[in-house]
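User: quick one, sequence for these tokens?
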């Protein structure tokens, strides 16, 4: 069970997709993202890389790879995946690394795509 303080809803995501200071991270594999699309303004860091990227990647390398400033431990990170399982695992990893404002979008891509059919 995820602590409700670390959960965001579809409505919460809508409020932050155009706020560059909020970092939305898609933890699916790149093939999944390219076949389905992604939430606007999100970046893709596969679950298997989340710990290494947040703990070890330099600010310069993060900027070069993701075209965003590397988040500090005081920044809000929002994770999502396909159905919420991997995003919850990513949340756990981020919290253990000291990213205390991290959250998971439990509805994840399934919820987002069902509400944003184009």
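Assistant:
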């Amino acid at each position: 069970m995820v602590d409700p303080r670390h959960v965001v809803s579809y409505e919460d995501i809508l409020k932050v997709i155009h706020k560059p200071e909020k970092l939305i991270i898609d933890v699916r594999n790149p093939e999944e993202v390219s076949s389905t699309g992604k939430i606007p303004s999100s970046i893709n860091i596969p679950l298997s890389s989340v710990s290494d990227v947040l703990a070890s990647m330099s600010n310069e390398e993060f900027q070069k790879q993701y075209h965003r400033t590397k988040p500090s431990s005081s920044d809000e990170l929002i994770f999502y995946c396909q159905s919420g399982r991997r995003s919850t695992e990513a949340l756990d990893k981020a919290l253990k690394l000291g990213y205390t404002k991290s959250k998971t979008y439990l509805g994840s891509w399934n919820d987002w795509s069902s509400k944003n059919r184009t």
